[in-house]
Amino acid sequence: MTAQTGDPHEEQKRLAAIEAASMVREGMVVGLGSGTTSAYMIDELGRRWAEGLRFAAIPTSEHSAEQARSHGINLVTFATHPQIDLDIDGADEVEMGTLNLIKGRGGALFREKIVAAASRRFVVVVDESKLVPRLGHHMPVPVEVTTFGWELTASRLQALGARPTLRLDRHGTPFNTDGGNLILDCNFGEIADSVALARKIRAIVGVIESGLFIGRTSEVIVAGRDGLKHLMAG
C-alpha cells in the first residue's frame, strides 16, 4: 500500500505506521490493527518478515488477516497465544491529555478492543489531524449492536443524547461486521465525560461494544508537518 500522491495526511500516517512497526522484535506476539494506517504498518511488517524477522500475529479483522497472509506472516489465535506483547492500531480521534480514543470507522471495533485488552502495550498511530481536545469533536461514536432489536437499541442510545445512524455499506444495505452485527454511528457532539458515557452505552441491552477506548492506550505516535512525536499515557 502506498501513500496517495499529494495527500500529506496519508504520508504522515505511513511514516507513523513505519515507526510503530519498528517496535516489533523477534519472537513477539503482535496485534495487527485494522484500517488504512494499520495497512501501512502491516506492509512494513511484511517487508521486515521478508528480511527474516519472525513473530506471531493476531489480526483484528478479516481484511488485516488477508493482508498479513499475503506477506506470509504467521497468524495465530488466542487459543495458543493468550497474551499479546504489542498491539498496533490506528484511531479516528485521540483526546489530548487522556489519550482516550474513538475507533471503529473501519467496522472492527469489537475485535480491536478484544486484542487491545489482551496486550501488554497498545500503541496507536495517527496523523496530527486526529488529535482533538475532546472526543466527539469530529467523529461519531460507532456502537456495534445485535441485529435483533437494533431499532430499540438505537432508541436507548438516543435517550443518552445520541443521534444514531445505521451504517450502510457501499451498496446502500446495512453494514455487517466480521461478527455479523450492525453498527450505529452515534453523534453525541463533544463528550464531556467519556468514561461515564462508555459505561452507560455498555449497560444498554443489545450493545455488543462501543468505539470508546478508555484508559487502554500506552503510547500514541503522531506524524505531522514537524515530524514524529510520541505521546505517553500518564
Please tag this protein with its features:
234 residues; alpha/beta; seven-stranded mixed sheet; four-stranded mixed sheet; globular
Average predicted local confidence, pLDDT = 95
Low-confidence stretches: none
Number of helices: 6
Percent of residues in beta strands?
A: 25-35%
Distance between the termini: 34 Å
Number of E strands: 15
| Global structural class | alpha/beta
Task: Give the helices and strands as they follow along the chain.
Answer: HEHEHEEEEHEEEHEEHEEEE
Which shape, going by the Cα principal axes?
Answer: globular
Indicate the radius of gyration in whole angstroms: 17 Å
Oligomer: single chain
Widest β-sheet, arrangement of strands: 3-2-1-4-7-14-15
Biggest sheet statistics = 7 strands, mixed
Task: Please sum up the structure shown.
The protein is α/β, with parallel strands linked by helices. 28% of the residues lie in helices and 28% in strands. The chain is built from six helices and 15 strands.
Written overview of the protein:
- With 234 residues, the chain is an alpha/beta fold.
- Helix content is 28%, strand content 28%.
- It has helices at 8-21, 36-50, 62-70, 109-117, 150-159, 194-202; strands at residues 29-32, 56-59, 74-75, 84-89, 93-95, 101-102, 119-127, 131-132, 141-145, 163-166, 182-187, 207-210, 212-213, 219-224, 227-232.
- It has a 7-stranded mixed sheet with strand order 3-2-1-4-7-14-15. A 4-stranded mixed sheet has the order 8-5-6-13, with no helix packed on it.
- It is globular.
Secondary structure blueprint with pairings:
Blueprint: H1 8-21, E1 29-32, H2 36-50, E2 56-59, H3 62-70, E3 74-75, E4 84-89, E5 93-95, E6 101-102, H4 109-117, E7 119-127, E8 131-132, E9 141-145, H5 150-159, E10 163-166, E11 182-187, H6 194-202, E12 207-210, E13 212-213, E14 219-224, E15 227-232
Parallel strand pairs: 1-2, 1-4, 2-3, 4-7, 5-8, 7-14
Antiparallel strand pairs: 5-6, 6-13, 9-11, 9-12, 10-11, 14-15
